[in-house]
């Protein structure tokens, strides 16, 4: 069975992967539309640019002379230098038509030769030659689909005698789309990793670590080793679990001390060395003069012989000045409980105390075995 940590990790990674994939699919459709729109804008811009270059480089009207197309006095038919120059400037395919027939072009056929003498698509011919309008959109160019722009070429008296064309292949659109998608995917991957790290750090700090600490403390209780109160930080529910556990520890400690007291008062039981508080066995007081000073009067209300034996054993093993906090940490009891036993031992004459003053903060009370 997987641990909570692994289940959270799998859920987190699965959610982020699903979110990132959905984001890329949506962005893919958006980028594809943007690539088409970008290509159309470029076609329109290149048409206007090429038209202006032609007018300034070759002044004069378009005309047809002896079956050839002229711009002013310059022959355009079979003049591929013109279309090559414009293609280099724009990055597009460029064609000039006389009527519906290519007479200068950078478009090449399947044999690799310039497609001189081939016809324009019928729908384009209808729009440009018959209706006299500009055509912008997809069109079949010598068997391949392009984003295209066609404008009519007019003589001085306004008659339409040809077409000027620029086109962008779908490979260019695909390149724009791919580059945009790669950049978006890169940014999305970085953001996804960042969100994953931050979320995992938060889950570890707020849920996994606190639950792990409470689990370890619960195991100690289950094996008969009463632990100190746990201190964890986390969400409200984790705090409530911490409070519930600490209340359980306090109740177990009180119950154990009560059982030990009742067991030790029974004449049928002789004190023996204790191993842990849950055995309810009564350890002897290891410091003889403490036992002698206590006498038969017993302990004050609320103090128990088993707990006293545990504390005196620790004091005997560490015969040096100790604070209540150090003893509490050594015997795994609360500082308040330990202080009551230390003050009793001091009152009985088994210990003496003195104040230790530091440079900062309140003085510390040290207990010294006699």
From TrEMBL:
Cellular localization per UniProt: Cell membrane
Coiled coil: 238-265
GO molecular function: phosphorelay response regulator activity
Gene3D superfamilies named in the record: 6.10.340.10, Winged helix-like DNA-binding domain superfamily/Winged helix DNA-binding domain
InterPro entries in the cross-refs: 2C-system_Tx_regulators (IPR051271), HAMP_dom (IPR003660), HTH_11 (IPR013196), sCache_3 (IPR033463), Sensor-like_sf (IPR029151), WH-like_DNA-bd_sf (IPR036388), WH_DNA-bd_sf (IPR036390)
Transmembrane segments: 185-203
Major location (coarse): membrane
Topology of this chain in the membrane: Multi-pass membrane protein
Keywords of the record: Cell membrane, Coiled coil, Membrane, Transmembrane, Transmembrane helix
PROSITE patterns, per database record: HAMP (PS50885)
CDD domains documented for this protein: HAMP
SMART domains tied to this protein: HAMP
HAMP domain: residues covered: 205-257
GO CC annotations on file: plasma membrane
PANTHER family the record matches: TRANSCRIPTIONAL REGULATORY PROTEIN DCUR-RELATED, TRANSCRIPTIONAL REGULATORY PROTEIN DPIA
Protein name: Response regulator of citrate/malate metabolism
Species per Swiss-Prot/TrEMBL record: Desulfosporosinus youngiae DSM 17734
């Amino acid at each position: 069975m997987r641990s909570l940590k692994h289940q959270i990790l799998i859920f987190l990674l699965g959610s982020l992967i699903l979110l990132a994939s959905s984001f890329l699919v949506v962005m893919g459709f958006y980028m594809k539309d943007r690539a088409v729109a970008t290509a159309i804008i470029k076609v329109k811009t290149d048409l206007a640019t090429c038209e202006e270059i032609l007018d300034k480089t070759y002044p004069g009207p378009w005309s047809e002379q002896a079956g050839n197309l002229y711009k002013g006095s310059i022959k355009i038919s079979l003049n591929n230098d013109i279309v090559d120059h414009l293609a280099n400037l724009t990055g597009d395919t460029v064609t000039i038509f006389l009527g519906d027939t290519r007479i200068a072009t950078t478009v090449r056929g399947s044999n690799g030769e310039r497609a001189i003498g081939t016809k324009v698509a019928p729908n384009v011919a209808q729009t440009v030659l018959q209706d006299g309008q500009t055509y912008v959109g997809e069109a079949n160019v010598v068997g391949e689909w392009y984003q295209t722009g066609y404008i009519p070429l007019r003589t001085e008296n306004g008659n339409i005698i040809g077409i000027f064309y620029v086109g962008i292949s779908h490979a260019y659109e695909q390149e724009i789309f791919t580059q945009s998608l790669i950049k978006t995917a890169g940014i999305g991957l970085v953001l996804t990793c960042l969100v994953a790290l931050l979320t995992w750090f938060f889950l570890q700090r707020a849920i996994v670590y606190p639950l792990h600490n409470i689990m370890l403390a619960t195991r100690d209780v289950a094996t008969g080793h009463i632990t100190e109160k746990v201190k964890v930080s986390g969400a409200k529910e984790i705090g409530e679990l911490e409070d519930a556990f600490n209340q359980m520890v306090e109740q177990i400690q009180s119950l154990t001390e009560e059982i030990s007291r009742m067991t030790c008062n029974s004449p049928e039981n002789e004190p023996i060395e204790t191993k842990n508080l849950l055995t309810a066995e009564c350890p002897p007081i290891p410091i003889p003069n403490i036992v002698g000073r206590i006498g038969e009067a017993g302990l004050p209300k609320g103090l128990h012989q088993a707990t006293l034996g545990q504390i005196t054993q620790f004091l005997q093993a560490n015969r040096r000045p100790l604070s209540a906090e150090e003893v509490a940490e050594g015997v795994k009891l609360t500082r308040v409980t330990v202080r009551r036993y230390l003050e009793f031992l001091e009152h009985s004459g088994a210990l003496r105390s003195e104040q230790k003053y530091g440079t900062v903060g309140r003085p510390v009370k040290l207990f010294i075995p006699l």
